[in-house]
Design brief:
The chain is α+β, with helices and mostly antiparallel strands and 843 residues long. Helices cover 28% and strands 27% of the residues. The protein has a 15-stranded mixed beta sheet that branches. InterPro entries: ArgoL1, ArgoL2, Argonaute_Mid_dom, Argonaute_N, PAZ_dom, PAZ_dom_sf, Piwi, Piwi_ago-like.
Length: 843
C-alpha cells in the first residue's frame, strides 16, 4: 500500500461481486496512538563516517547517561540516522540545539575511523508533528501531507526503536541467529521479522511478517576458506592456492569485519582491505629494526606460534598489517549483500517456504519478540497494538469460462481450483510449423533418442492442435563450446533448404541448466538471425512425456503467432465492446552492487480483441532509473502495431505498470501518463484515448490466511479469486489486493493493484473482475497466474533482454562490468529483430 503526497484516484466504493468471506491478515490493529503533538529533532553524530549500526549504540549510551540531564525520563526514539522524536519537548535552551560528548566502550567504536570511541551528538529542534491530522487522513477527511507522512514515519520508528537495539537490523526487518540454517559456500540464512506501520481505512495497523536474509557464516577463517572454495577439507589446500582462488577469496572477504584471536583478551576488530598474493610463509616484511622476515617467522618469534596453515595467504588490514588467517575470525551478524548462486537460492527457498498455518503461527510469535506489550516507549506515547491478527472482509470472485478450440466437446469450461489440463482440448488457433530444424548441443544424447523424441513431439503437437507439416526436420549435432553463431545460422539454412520455405523455428537440446549457452542462443536468435528458438533440457529427451511435450507445444504455438486460449467477448466487455489496448510495463535492474550495467525497460501490448496475442518493445536506460525514459516512443510503436493488426485505433488504454515502489507513484503518474498522452497526440493531434493506469505490486508483506479449513484450497491458502478492498487498504484511494492463483507451496502472496489515473471510470467490480479473468489466459500455463499477464509478459521480456548484451560473461555469477562506461554499456545491447517484436518470442 502506498502513501504519497499526490492525490490519486478516489475509491469509487467497494466491490460487491463474488462470494463474501472473511480472512485473517498479518495486519494488527493499532487501538490507540498519540493524539497530541510529537516533537521532531534533527540528530547529527560525529565522526560522520562511523558505521550506521554504531549510531544506535551511541544513542543508547546517551540514554543510559539519562541524556546528560535533558531526557529526564522522556522516552525519545531515534531512527539510527538523523531523526529523533519525543512525546514531550526536550529542554534545549534558547538556541533549540545542544551538543553532547558520548564515550562508547565498544570494540568497533575504538577504531580510529569511528573516532576511538569518542562521539559528539548534536540535537536540534526540527518541528512538531500534528498527530490529529493523521487521524483525519485515516478517516478520509484530509489529503496526504508532509505532516501525515512524518507522523507515519514516527510510528514506524517508535515500534522499531527497541528491537533495533537488540537484533541485527536490515531496513524494516530484524534478524536473530536463534533459528539459522547453513547455506553452501560459507553463508547462512537467518530468520527474522518485518514490521511496518500502515494506514488503513479509519485506523492505523502494524503489518508484521516473517522475513529471512543471508548472512556470512561467522567463525575461524581457515574453516570458512574451505567452504568458499568448495573443498572438502583444508588438507586439499596444502599445496598452495592458485591465483584464481586467491582472487575469489579476496572478492568474498573484502570489506568484511574480522576479529583477531592471538592477543588474549584484546580481540581487536578490523575490516579486510585485501589478501596477500603469497602465503604467510612467503609474505615478507621488515620489522622495526629493519630485519626482513616472513609473516610466519614473525608470529613464531613474537607470539611463540607455529602457524598450522602457513600455505594460506594473509589478510591485509589498514594499510599494511598482515594477519595469518588462523588468527582471524569472521565477526557474526554480517549480511551477505552479493547475489546468491543457484544452490544457495534453492536452499534459501526451501528454508523460507512455510505452509500458511505455520507462517501465521510464526507471525504471532513475532509479537513477543518485537515487544509491543511491555515497551516503555510505546507506553509513554500511549500506543497500543491489538495482539490478534486483523480479520478482514473479502470476496471470492466467480471463476471465468475459458475457451480452447470449439471443435472439441469441452472446448469451453470453468476450471476448478484455478488449474486444469489439456486432455481432450485443442489450441484455439494452432500455427503451422513447416520449416524448422533441431540442434543437439548435448553430446551425451544419442541420435535414435532424438529421433524418437521428435516423433513424440510432432504427434503431441498435432494432437494439441499445432499443425506440423514437416515431421522430419534436419537434426545437427553441435559443440556447446563452439561457435554458436555459425551453428545456428547453419541450422537456419538447413531448415529453409529442407522445407523450401522461410525458416520458422530452431529447436535446441541443451546439455544442462547453465546460463551461458542458453543466453548466447537467445542473443543470436533474437537479435542476429531473427527467428524464435525453443530450448529443451537433455534430461527430457529419453522419456518424452506427453505432458512435457504439450507444455512445449503451448510455448511454440505462441512463438509462431498462434493463440492458445481466450475469454469469450461477454466476459471481457471492456476489451471487446470497443477497440481497446492492454499494456504491461516493467523495469528490471542489475543485481545488487552492480552500479555499471544499465536497467532494462519492457512494454508489452495486446494486439487483438481477445487480449491473447502481445507485441513488445525494449529499451535500455541508465542504471537503476525507475521511470521509463523512452515510454512515449515505445507506446507509439505498439499503437502502430495494434493499428496494423486490427485496422483500428484503440479508443481505450489500460496500462498495468509493474516494478514501481511506493515513493515513486507521483513521479510515475506525472511523467509516464503524460508520455502515453503525448505518444497518442504525436500520431494524430485529435487522438485522445481514455487511459487507466494501474500500478501492480508484488513486493509487499500483506498475507491472507483462511479462517476455516473449509475456506482453503488444497495448499491451505485462500481460494483463487480472493479479493480484499476494505479495512487494510488505503484510507480512501482506489486499490485492492487480489490473490488470483491457486497455491502450490508455501504461503501465497496476493498482488496489490493501485489505480493512479482513471479516465475510464472503472467500478471496483469491473476492474477486479477484468484483472482476475485475464489471469486465466496467461499463454504458457494451464493455471491462473498470480499477476496480470501483460505485466507478467513485460517481466519476461525485460529478463530476456539481459541476454542481448554482447560480450557478457555469464559463467561468472559475480562478474561486474567495470571496464565499460555507461554509454558503452547501453550500446552493447543488441536490438530484437522487428519481425520478432510482433510475436511472443520470449515465451
Amino acid at each position: 500500500m502506498s502513501i504519497s503526497l499526490t492525490e490519486f484516484v478516489k475509491r469509487p466504493g467497494v466491490g460487491q461481486v463474488g462470494k463474501p468471506t472473511r480472512v485473517r491478515s498479518n495486519y494488527f490493529e493499532v487501538t490507540s496512538f498519540p493524539t497530541g503533538n510529537i516533537h521532531h529533532y534533527d540528530v547529527t553524530i560525529d565522526p560522520p563516517s562511523a558505521p550506521p549500526a554504531l549510531y544506535r549504540k551511541v544513542w543508547k549510551a546517551f540514554e543510559d547517561q539519562d541524556g546528560q540531564g535533558i531526557l529526564k525520563g522522556i522516552k525519545a526514539v531515534f531512527d539510527g540516522r538523523k531523526n529523533a522524536f519525543s512525546p514531550k519537548a526536550l529542554p534545549l535552551g534558547e538556541e533549540s540545539a545542544k551538543a553532547f560528548e558520548v564515550q562508547l566502550n565498544d570494540a568497533e567504536a575504538q577504531s580510529k575511523r569511528a573516532g576511538g570511541g569518542q562521539f559528539t551528538l548534536r540535537i536540534k529542534r526540527a518541528g512538531e508533528i500534528n498527530m490529529e491530522e493523521l487521524n483525519r487522513f485515516l478517516q478520509g477527511q484530509t489529503a496526504s501531507s508532509n505532516n501525515v507522512l512524518t507522523a507515519i514515519m514516527f510510528l514506524d520508528i517508535l515500534i522499531r526503536h527497541v528491537p533495533s537495539t537488540m537484533h541485527a537490523t536490515v531496513g524494516r526487518s530484524f534478524f536473530t541467529p536463534a533459528d539459522k540454517r547453513p547455506l553452501p559456500g560459507g553463508a547462512e540464512v537467518w530468520q527474522g521479522y518485518y514490521q511496518s506501520a500502515r494506514p488503513g481505512v479509519g485506523k492505523m495497523y502494524i503489518n508484521l511478517d516473517v522475513s529471512a536474509t543471508a548472512f556470512h557464516e561467522a567463525g575461524r577463517l581457515p574453516d570458512l576458506v574451505v567452504k568458499y572454495l568448495g573443498r572438502r577439507s583444508i588438507d586439499e589446500l596444502r599445496r598452495g592456492l592458485s591465483d584464481r582462488d586467491v582472487k575469489k577469496l579476496e572478492k568474498q572477504l573484502k570489506g568484511l569485519k574480522i576479529m583477531v584471536t592471538h592477543r588474549g583478551e584484546n580481540k581487536r576488530r578490523y575490516k579486510v582491505t585485501k589478501l596477500t598474493p603469497s602465503p604467510a610463509e612467503r609474505t615478507n616484511f621488515k620489522d622495526q629494526e629493519g630485519n626482513e622476515m616472513s609473516v610466519a617467522q614473525y608470529f613464531g618469534r613474537q607470539y611463540g606460534m607455529r602457524l598450522a596453515y602457513p600455505f594460506l595467504p594473509c589478510i591485509v588490514v589498514k594499510r599494511d598489517i598482515f594477519l595469518p588467517m588462523e588468527v582471524c575470525e569472521l565477526v557474526p551478524g554480517q549480511r551477505l549483500t552479493k547475489k546468491l548462486n543457484e544452490k544457495q537460492t534453492a536452499d534459501m527457498i526451501k528454508f523460507t517456504c512455510q505452509k500458511p498455518n505455520v507462517r501465521a503461527n510464526k507471525i504471532k510469535q513475532g509479537l513477543d519478540l518485537l515487544q509491543y506489550r511491555n515497551n516503555p516507549y510505546l507506553q509513554q506515547c500511549n500506543m497500543t497494538v491489538k495482539p490478534e491478527m486483523a480479520v478482514v472482509n473479502a470476496r471470492v470472485l466467480p471463476t471465468p469460462q475459458i475457451s480452447y478450440n470449439g471443435s472439441t466437446p469441452d472446448g469451453t469450461f470453468a476450471p476448478q481450483g484455478g488449474a486444469w489440463n489439456l486432455r481432450g482440448k485443442k489450441l484455439a488457433q494452432g500455427a503451422v510449423l513447416g520449416s524448422w530444424s533441431v540442434v543437439n548441443f548435448a553430446p551425451q544424447v544419442p541420435m535414435p533418442a532424438i529421433t524418437r523424441f521428435v516423433r513424440e513431439l510432432c504427434q503431441t503437437f498435432i494432437d494439441t492442435g499445432l499443425n506440423v507439416v514437416n515431421r522430419q526436420p534436419p537434426i545437427t549435432n553441435a559443440d556447446p563450446q563452439g561457435n554458436i553463431d555459425r551453428t545456428l545460422k547453419e541450422a537456419w539454412l538447413k531448415a529453409g533448404n529442407a522445407a523450401k520455405a522461410n525458416p520458422q523455428l530452431i529447436f535446441c537440446i541443451l546439455p544442462n541448466t547453465g546460463t551461458p549457452l542458453y543466453a548466447e542462443i537467445k542473443r543470436i536468435s533474437d537479435t542476429v538471425i531473427g527467428i524464435p528458438t525453443q530450448c529443451v533440457q537433455s534430461k527430457h529427451i529419453a522419456d518424452a512425456k506427453k505432458q512435457y511435450c504439450a507444455n512445449v507445444c503451448l510455448k511454440v504455438n505462441m512463438k509462431l503467432g498462434g493463440m492458445n486460449l481466450f475469454l469469450s467477448p461477454p466476459q471481457i466487455p471492456f476489451i471487446s465492446a470497443r477497440p481497446t489496448i492492454i499494456l504491461g510495463a516493467d523495469v528490471t535492474h542489475p543485481s545488487p552492487g552492480d552500479m555499471n550495467r544499465p536497467s532494462v525497460a519492457a512494454v508489452t501490448a495486446s494486439m487483438d480483441a481477445r487480449a491473447s496475442r502481445y507485441a513488445s518493445a525494449i529499451r535500455v536506460q541508465a542504471n537503476r532509473t525507475e521511470i521509463i525514459a523512452d515510454l512515449g516512443s515505445m507506446v507509439k510503436e505498439l499503437l502502430k502495431s495494434f493499428y496494423q493488426s486490427c485496422g483500428q485505433k484503440p479508443e481505450r488504454i489500460l496500462f498495468y505498470r509493474d516494478g514501481v515502489s511506493e515513493g515513486q507513484f507521483s513521479e510515475v503518474q506525472t511523467r509516464e501518463v503524460q508520455q502515453i498522452r503525448d505518444a497518442c497526440l504525436s500520431l494524430d493531434k485529435s487522438y485522445r484515448p481514455t487511459i487507466t493506469f494501474v500500478v501492480v505490486q508484488k513486493r509487499h508483506h500483506a498475507r491472507f490466511f483462511p479462517m476455516e479449513p473449509r475456506d482453503a484450497d488444497r495448499s491451505g491458502n485462500c481460494q483463487p479469486g480472493t479479493v480484499v478492498d476494505s479495512q487494510i487498504v488505503h484510507p480512501f484511494e482506489f486499490d485492492f489486493y487480489l490473490q488470483s492463483h491457486a497455491g502450490l507451496q508455501g504461503t501465497s502472496r496476493p498482488t496489490h493493484y493501485h489505480v493512479i489515473h482513471d479516465d475510464n471510470n472503472f467500478t471496483p467490480d469491473q476492474l477486479q473482475e477484468l484483472t482476475y479473468r485475464l489471469c486465466y489466459i496467461y499463454g504458457r500455463a494451464t493455471r491462473a497466474v498470480s499477476i496480470v499477464p501483460p505485466a507478467y509478459y513485460a517481466d519476461l521480456v525485460a529478463a530476456r533482454a539481459r541476454f542481448h548484451r554482447r560480450g557478457e560473461n555469464w559463467s561468472d555469477t559475480e562478474a561486474t562490468s567495470e571496464s565499460m562506461n555507461p554509454d558503452e554499456q547501453m550500446a552493447s545491447f543488441a536490438v530484437v529483430k522487428p519481425e520478432l517484436q510482433k510475436v511472443m518470442y520470449y515465451m
